[in-house]
Amino acid sequence: EAEVAQSPRYKITEKSQAVAFWCDPISGHATLYWYRQILGQGPELLVQFQDESVVDDSQLPKDRFSAERLKGVDSTLKIQPAELGDSAMYLCASSLTTGTPEAFFGQGTRLTVV
Amino acid sequence: GNSVTQMEGPVTLSEEAFLTINCTYTATGYPSLFWYVQYPGEGLQLLLKATKADDKGSNKGFEATYRKETTSFHLEKGSVQVSDSAVYFCALLHQGGSEKLVFGKGMKLTVNP
């Protein structure tokens, strides 16, 4: 069964260091999402791609976060410098196209900033 | 803006008990509605969905009916099992505007044998 792949599963980093997460969506899925899930909260969208273009990054803290999907397939989310408040689960999801009423989620990357 | 409100947990039930998790939404137009489940240490999985008013989504013994008149999408299961222990998220997708999933805060369910 096709699934969204994310790595690493867990990451511990020191404050002010750089950290990067990788996501490979389901083959053929044009839309890719990055969500942040703080413990005890629901996921919140950070950035949404349609193919290689960003369609929504209104909630992305652009002073420290960046995301790219250069060839419209896999994607990288970077944080530099990391802050204590960035500790969270980072979830990647994909769907066939924007507005398709079903998104498939990866297992997530659990980030701990110390 | 679009938003989802879920009943707050955590909730602990005994096996075979009846489960209801309330979910109401605020949105313009006609969003699609979803329930996602997150088992310990895993990502979110779609549990069920409904894309128009009066639709009933069902899966694994869970059901939810899209009620436009009460803007609700309550999740129910007649007899829970220990394996249903997880966090449940209600979500909406408003197509035609900002087409992204908006999640509720989630409700943690623990089922004891």
Structure description:
The complex is a heterodimer of chains A (114) and B (113). Chain A has 114 residues and is an all-beta fold. Chain A has strands spanning 5-7, 10-13, 19-24, 31-37, 44-50, 53-56, 65-68, 75-79, 88-95, 104-105, 109-113. Helices cover 0% and strands 48% of the residues of chain A. In chain A, strands 2, 4, 5, 6, 9, 10 and 11 form a seven-stranded mixed β-sheet that branches. By secondary structure, chain B is mostly beta strands. Chain B has strands at 3-6, 11-14, 19-21, 23-26, 32-38, 44-50, 56-59, 62-65, 75-77, 86-93, 101-103, 107-112. Chain B is globular. The A-B interface holds A 4, 6, 33, 40-45, 48, 56, 91, 93, 98-99, 101-108 and B 4, 32, 34, 36, 41-46, 49, 51, 89, 91, 93, 95-96, 98-101, 103-106.
First and last CA, distance of chain B: 41 Å
Strand element count of chain B: 12
How far from one another are the termini of chain A? Answer: 36 Å
Could you give a short account of the major beta sheet of chain B?
Answer: 6 strands, mixed
Low-confidence stretches of chain A: none
The SSE order of chain A reads EEEEEEEEEEE
Radius of gyration of chain B: 14 Å
Main sheet record of chain A:
7 strands, mixed
Oligomer category: heterodimer
Structural class call of chain B reads: mainly beta
| Beta-strand share of residues of chain A | over 45%
Structural class estimated from helices and strands of chain A: mainly beta
Arithmetic mean of pLDDT of chain A = 93
Number of E-state strands of chain A: 11
Bin the strand percentage of chain B. over 45%
Mean pLDDT of chain B: 92
Which stretches of chain B of 5+ consecutive residues score pLDDT under 50? none
Tally of alpha and pi helices of chain A: 0
